[in-house]
Design a protein that fits this description.
The protein is built from 14 helices and 29 strands. The chain is elongated.
């Protein structure tokens, strides 16, 4: 399907089963409307033609007459491998064969890097606004420039994976890629397909996995796209109660139609196989699962059992996960799913959806709500920091501080913190420490690593001038050191998704807003003690219960001066004594700096 370049020409094939005629228009026939008539392929609904001499870089579209002879707006190729730079809308012929991958070492070992027992710390990026060439008309970075600058930056901060907001071709910059038209085309905004491969190849050779936001939940109504493609509701539902997203003014795929399901399934496999992506993060899964998503009574059509579950969408997601995990070694899939739908990361053979991981949206909402409150009020909301542990192991969770948390008036992570500038940064450092010590994989959106004061805006670039200021550079250093500690200490990652990897020591000190817990790995892994103090008061001689004697090294303190803190702490560690506390046989006194999180690692005897 699409435009297949090779053997001295290009074969064009498009699915339009309800068309009376389909003509191919392009540079090669001077866009003459009736020059190139395509021919039906049996009764498949596919129209095809071969054009000799057409190679890389030719523009083209389809002219489709519906069954009544009405001509549709010229359509881009749903399976095209390339597209013009927006706002232009033609498809572009691209030869995507013959790339010389150099990431064999990564590909052979990546299953261990994408496993739920591995340290997974994800840097989420909108490539168009991470960095720009301000002196070159504010242009976006190319894939090859990102292969050098972004890859080195993320790897240098200790992240294990990059995750890109959708890079499928999309007409509107303001959609951030979440309203794609060209599902098989890497956006030309940063370069052609082989250069996108250069970025992924470079990341792999630097030890970074690459995830890609995939959008099967909906598509925009742009006239050159999929909407009423052959004059009928071909990809979408005819009934707007099933086929129209009120929230986004987009159309919903008809998942129950075999050809549409295969279109989406092949697209998922395409990105993983052709571009060596390490995984797909599936957007807006909740909107797919429920027929009444964001709809009032009477605005939706029940399923065949009278229920609200979208059975066809559920089947598609299960088939997608079964397909990609079965066909491509070592990958992961991630669901952005905001409800309590059961078994999102449970295998399909156990009646789950089959995802590898799920974003923990409840944890994110609760903890951000807590940390945004003035410390004097936090004792009344202590449960917001502990409630997540009631369900922390019901799924394989990723803890997401994503792009959605720093836009639309929510404020940046820095601005969400209470207090004066010093307190804002201290609150944020303490929160990041809590997050990295909490069970679950980690995800942080770009700019949050240096506490950018302004909300994210896709029209420009990150505030790199602020990133260079010492107090903000200290936050960046903290993220690097948290990632390093998280990767180096098995107890902080090996059982992120298992209940026996976590034990509360103190969860009820509401008056002082203190939390303490243990992270545990496999037998022989040194345990890690994590303590958070969410008040601006230093607590001296706070006694913490411990499971064993010996010395516990202070491995990280978010109040250290190198991070911009006051440098209060424990002179390198604490020593356990034969004094019981918190139901433990041993204990030690610790100094808890104001607005801080501390990590202690049990040292060998």
């Amino acid at each position: 399907m699409g435009a297949q370049v090779g053997n001295g020409g290009t074969r064009f094939s498009v699915w339009a089963p309800n068309a009376r005629r389909v003509h191919l228009l392009g540079d090669f026939n001077s866009w003459a409307e009736f020059e190139t008539l395509m021919h039906p392929v049996g009764n498949t609904g596919i129209w095809s033609c071969w054009i000799a001499g057409v190679g890389e870089g030719a523009r083209y579209k389809y002219r489709i007459e519906d069954r009544d002879g009405h001509v549709q707006p010229l359509k881009a190729d749903p399976l095209g491998f390339g597209a013009e730079h927006p706002p232009e809308t033609a498809s572009i012929t691209r030869d995507i064969s013959g790339y010389g991958w150099r990431d064999q070492e990564w590909m052979g070992a990546r299953a261990n890097r994408n496993h739920r027992h591995a340290p997974i710390s994800i840097y989420e990026v909108h490539l168009g606004s991470w960095k720009r060439r301000v002196d070159e008309d504010n242009r976006m970075l190319s894939y090859r420039e990102a292969a050098e600058e972004l890859v080195e930056y993320a790897a240098g901060l200790g992240f294990t994976h990059l995750e890109f907001l959708p890079l499928s071709e999309h007409p509107f910059d303001g959609s951030w890629g979440y309203q794609p038209v060209g599902l098989f085309a890497p956006t030309i905004r940063h370069g052609p397909p082989h250069e996108f491969r250069d970025l992924i190849d470079a990341a792999h050779r630097r030890g970074l996995g690459v995830l890609f936001d995939w959008v099967p939940a909906h598509f925009p109504m742009d006239p050159h796209g999929l909407a009423r493609f052959d004059g009928t509701a071909l990809y979408e539902h005819e009934d707007p109660r099933q086929g129209y997203h009120q929230d986004w003014s987009t159309l919903i795929y008809n998942y129950g139609r075999r050809e549409v399901a295969n279109f989406l399934l092949s697209n998922a496999l395409y990105w993983l196989e052709e571009y060596h992506l390490d995984g797909l993060r599936v957007d807006a899964v909740a909107s797919m699962l429920y027929l009444d998503y964001s709809r009032k009574e009477g605005e939706w059509v029940p399923n065949r059992h009278g229920g609200r579950e979208n059975l066809e969408a559920i089947d598609l997601l299960q088939r997608m996960n079964t397909l990609v995990y079965g066909e491509v070694d070592g990958i992961m899939t991630v669901a952005e799913e905001s409800t309590a739908y059961p078994g999102v990361s449970e295998p399909v053979h156990n009646n789950g959806l089959g995802f590898g991981f799920k974003w923990n949206m409840g944890w994110m909402n609760d903890t951000l709500g807590y940390i945004g409150k003035d410390p004097v009020h936090r004792k009344h909301h202590h449960h917001m920091m502990t409630f997540g542990l009631h369900y922390a192991f019901s799924e394989n969770f990723i803890l997401p501080i994503s792009h959605d948390e720093v836009v639309h008036g929510k404020g940046s992570m820095y601005e969400r913190m209470p207090g004066n500038p010093w307190e804002k940064l201290a609150n944020l450092r303490a929160y990041y420490g809590f997050m990295w010590g909490h069970p679950g994989k980690k995800l942080l959106f770009m700019g949050c690593e240096f506490a950018q004061p302004a909300e994210w805006a896709q029209q420009g670039q990150l505030d790199w001038d602020t990133a260079a200021k010492p107090e903000h550079a200290g936050v960046t250093r903290l993220i690097r050191d948290l990632n390093t500690l998280y990767s180096e200490q098995p107890s902080l990652h090996r059982k992120d998704c298992e209940a026996d990897g976590f034990q509360w020591i103190e969860a009820e000190d509401t008056d002082h807003s203190i939390l303490a817990w243990l992270r545990l790995g496999s037998e022989g892994d040194p345990p890690v003690l994590v303590i958070s103090n969410f008040t601006p008061m230093e607590r001296r001689d706070w006694r913490v219960g411990l499971p064993s004697t010996g010395r516990w090294r202070e491995a990280l303190n978010t109040d250290a001066s190198i991070y911009g803190g006051s440098d209060s702490g424990n002179l390198g560690g604490i020593n356990a004594e034969d004094t019981s506390q918190h139901g433990r046989p041993f204990s030690a006194t610790v100094t808890l700096p104001p607005l801080s999180t501390l990590f202690f690692v049990r040292e060998d005897q």
